[in-house]
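Provenance

Sequences were taken from public entries as deposited. Structures were produced by running a predictor on each sequence independently, with no templates supplied. The record for DUF6541 family protein from Kineococcus halophytocola is shown for reference.
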Amino acid sequence: MTPVQVVTGGSSAGDALTLVVAALWVLVPGAAVLTAAGVRRLPLLLGGAPAVSVGISTVAASVTGATGTRFAWWGVLAAAVVLAGLSRLVGGRARPAGGPARGPLLAGGVLVLAAAATTGELFRRGVGALATPSQEHDTITHTLITARILRTGDAAPWRAQAIDVVTGTPAQYYPDGLHQWAALVAQSARVDAVAGLNATSVVVIALVQTLGLLALADRVLPPRWLAAGGVAAVAASLAYQPLLAMHHDSGALPNAAAVAFAPGAVALVLPPREDLPWRGVLGRVPALALAGAGAVTVHPSAALTVGGGVLGVWVVWVAENTLSALRRGSRRAGRVFSAREGRWLGGLAVAGALAGALVGTALLQAASAGGGSSSRFDRDIPVEPLPAALHRVLTLPLQGGIDPGATREQWVLALAVLAGLVLAGRKAAPVAVVWLVWSALAVAYLVGLRGPGLDLVWDSAWNSYYRVAAHASPWAWLLAGVAVVRVAGGLTRGRRGEPVVAAVLGAALLAGAAVETAPTEVRALRERYAEPAYERIDADDQAAARYLASVVQPGQRVMNSGNDGSTYAYVLQGVPILATTAVPLASQPDVRVLARDLRAMTPQVQEIVRREDVAWVVVDALAPGLPLIPADVEFFGVPGYAVPPGLVDLDAAPGFRRVFTSGSVGVWEVPDVTRDGTRGQGRGS
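Predicted structure for DUF6541 family protein:
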């Protein structure tokens, strides 16, 4: 097999700057609003900022989409200033609030930095330059959406995925919070959509996830256990499932990002440590609404990840408070919530209404379209007996395309998680309970249980096990952190050196997990980026894109296969391609007909060619094979294809003239079809 000529570019210094820009865009706007709302605890400020930042960009995208103006960086900054001002106006001057102790905060911060550096190094070795595109077809869709935001300035969530990138119609809902962020990075760092999207992918795992875990630990664990959040960040950075697996197996970047955003969002939604008056609660409502809208705009599954986590923690807290009151014989035993908690619930209700007003329409569109309905997708793992299901959930095998037999367990992380479960005690009970509930749901999926509530979870996860199990992952990593801080406390007997010992043990966990899985994780990334196992885009596709950009006349369209690298002709050169999905959708009936019958130039094809001014065809003969669903098998007449039937062997089709060749990629002129149905000599001459 001939090695793929990987498309890349840029420099190490330029990539570093792009990563800094990506980090600033996901931290600064949200941190500004949270600061104005009175948030002063550093872990919560940094961990909660990413979801709020995406919520701010969603507000800007919705306003510009509704008014027909352009989505751009200055609009997002303006929205951040307005929303921060609103939060300050409503909430007034914030009261001073105590922060976490310096020792645990430093230990947690050092471990977060170590986790971020580890993730950055994994991506550097696996992806190479940020300009290296992924060969995974779902990631191609993400890149197309990002590129269209850049080229048109249209980032409205309700029409995020324009099936026709030139006209914008038909369009459908697609969770585009990640793409909004990637477009902002590309705009301000002056890089292309590929580099912008890759930069956000790195920062999601290296920074958003790690800071969110630190914030969650700060909220649900005792203050002296804050280092557990840093250990959790370390565990997450070396875990293949779920986030790196989503890069490898299906390009499910928005779903992966939603998992990473969830810990910080949960920490924001849970009642703060300080007792806020009504005005203080109302001052945080805008930030809470933005965080909810931002997380859901990244991916709708965030509603389950965040909502399930918040509900689980709060149920445990209420149960503990009620039992404690009953033991003391308190008159408050029958009261489920205190006045403080009641105020917070009222604020959450207002925030939920605001978030629903912002993203509710888009979510209804997703639900009406079938979203991730399990009726549309087969299970990714066959039903298993209970012992096998428990083994899979508890031993954290790599699984997926890198480990189809699930024989490569991540024992270092798995043992740390189980140790944390054993050592959790009352102080970490919320973490243990939430992890147990989500793990029980994962087992239920594996053994094939069905039911109304369960089907909702399966549907939201695209009927995929690793997406179902992903809901539990933040809590699993926190349990690993609990194990480390409990051991550190035992070794130091609660003395001042406990944070230092926790940091050292966390570093040991990082080293052990790295030895066990890091080489495989780098290989998984390289198989999609630096040394791809199959090819959709390479230097030949890029050369064809440059050629088409030089010859396509205004108004002309280019027929292509969405299953190869031709979509990058639009991403990198702005070429007006027709096919933007691996298989043309029912909402593009003309493109489906061309994909099936173009080479035959039937009367129907001729009419489409005239109407759309289809002047060129570009085909990569080495595209990977693609199985078809039954409806598409019936339409195309084949069980699957690498190249659509209508684009096969155009050299032998009458009237088509090859005008460009680079490796396996060719460009042909489409025969000119006059009004009376006769064929000319080629419209591009």
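Residues 675-685 have pLDDT under 50 and may be disordered.
The first strand starts at residue 161 and ends at 162.
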